[in-house]
Design a protein that fits this description.
With 372 residues, this protein is α/β, with parallel strands linked by helices. It has 3 domains: 69 residues, no CATH class; 184 residues, Rossmann fold (3-Layer(aba) Sandwich); 59 residues, Arc Repressor Mutant, subunit A (Orthogonal Bundle). Helix content is 43%, strand content 13%. The protein is built from 16 helices and 11 strands. Strands 1-2-6-5-4-3-7-8-9 form a 9-stranded mixed β-sheet, with helices on both faces. It has a two-stranded antiparallel ribbon with strand order 10-11. Helix 9 links the parallel strand 5 and strand 6. The chain is elongated.
Length: 372
């Protein structure tokens, strides 16, 4: 059978409305081919599902094929050499994955990183630095191309010289959110964009949980950096646990609402993480075949802090007065005896250097060098 004809069978199944992979994947595992399911849907499927497969318009298939003819665009169906084994084990494994970029990355060892779309500055720095360290160790960083922690994780992986996978909740002919368009282009050139949704699919609320199961399903473990109690990241963490993946969470201040989701995960059994190597050590048995030997003595979380002009005693006193819980400028003035304008100026410089982070409520907290 011609490759294009085989693709048409897969696309017919993917484009059939109202039929999820949870219904078709068991049939594929039972030995039925995509051609059989597309041409002669078995009687074990409900009549409505059989009708939906037959009703797929050829024009929609042609449009998807046109996208696949673009440079760097691929369809990776179940049974393909590039289809990842970890994902294949899921009972609702996607029928196929649309990929823009390098499909071979789907089978590389991956660590998923997720978190708030509105993180603290310290959370962004932590996500970036952890991802860069994972990338330097030869591990693919996987996330969801959202704003906030997802974006920082992708950027950190690229900065670390490694690939990154971005799993989308839309068709890959669009980027959501649009502000990540340049990042998506960089990921395509140094990694891959992945989706189970065909080209032309717009973002919908129900697509994001489906996207999240792929993020966790591709990965050996999921690291949650910052998350509120109502964060979608907790859905990804729950799915990871159900899929038998490791779940990791970075703790934070008890006063920071963005730490509460992580604290809940830790109470429920997630592994507390203080540095990137905590994750690598836990996953070492699974990662050992791929781990690169460390070059030099740099460890994630041990990047020297550039002190510049913030080394005098006033700056040190200010840092000592902050501790690691959020604190207001007025409180720092009271604790240090420094003029308000001096404290404000010093906080600005310390924040620019990554030694202090602003948090919701106009408060500031000290950044632990061991987390950067």
């Amino acid at each position: 059978m011609a490759p294009t004809e085989q693709l048409r069978h897969w696309l017919r199944l993917i484009l059939a409305r109202g039929i999820g992979p949870g219904r078709l994947t068991p049939l594929l595992r039972a030995g039925l081919s995509a051609e059989t399911l597309a041409r002669e849907p078995p009687g074990t499927l409900p009549a409505r599902a059989r009708d939906a497969i037959r009703a797929v318009e050829e024009q929609r298939i042609d449009q998807a094929l046109a996208w696949l003819e673009e440079p760097g665009c691929h369809l990776v169906p179940q049974g393909s050499p590039h289809y990842p084994e970890l994902l294949q084990r899921l009972p609702d494994a996607p029928l196929a994955l649309f990929v823009r970029g390098d499909p071979a990355l789907l089978k590389t060892p991956q660590i998923a990183m997720v978190g708030s779309r509105n993180p603290t500055r310290g959370g962004l720095q932590t996500a970036h630095d952890f991802a860069a360290h994972f990338a330097r160790q030869g591990i693919t960083v996987t996330s969801g191309l959202a704003l906030g922690i997802d974006r920082a994780a992708h950027e950190g992986a690229l900065a670390g010289g490694g690939p990154t996978l971005a799993v989308a909740a839309t068709g890959l002919d669009r980027v959501y959110p649009a502000t990540n368009r340049e990042l998506a282009r960089a990921i395509t050139e140094n990694g891959a964009l992945v989706s189970e949704f065909p080209p032309g699919t717009a973002p919908r609320a129900g697509h994001f949980p489906r996207r999240n199961r792929i993020i966790s399903g591709l990965s050996l473990g999921v690291l949650v950096v910052e998350a509120t109690l109502r964060s979608g990241s907790l859905i990804t963490a729950r799915l990871a646990g159900e899929q038998g993946r490791e779940v990791f969470a970075i703790p934070g201040s008890i006063h920071n609402p963005l730490a509460r989701g992580c604290h809940r995960l830790i109470r429920e059994g997630a592994k507390l993480v203080e540095k990137a190597d905590d994750v690598l050590e836990e996953l070492a048995p699974q990662l050992q075949p791929w781990l690169e030997e460390a070059t030099g003595e740099e460890k994630a979380g041990e990047t020297p802090v550039t002190e510049a002009d913030t080394t005098d005693s006033d700056y040190q006193n200010l840092l000592d007065a902050m501790g690691f819980d959020p604190v207001s400028t007025d409180m720092l003035v009271a604790r240090t005896g420094l003029p308000p304008e001096a404290v404000s100026s010093m906080l600005l410089l310390l924040e620019l250097e990554g030694r202090v982070s602003s948090v919701p409520g106009g408060l500031f907290t000290r950044c632990d060098p061991a987390s950067r």
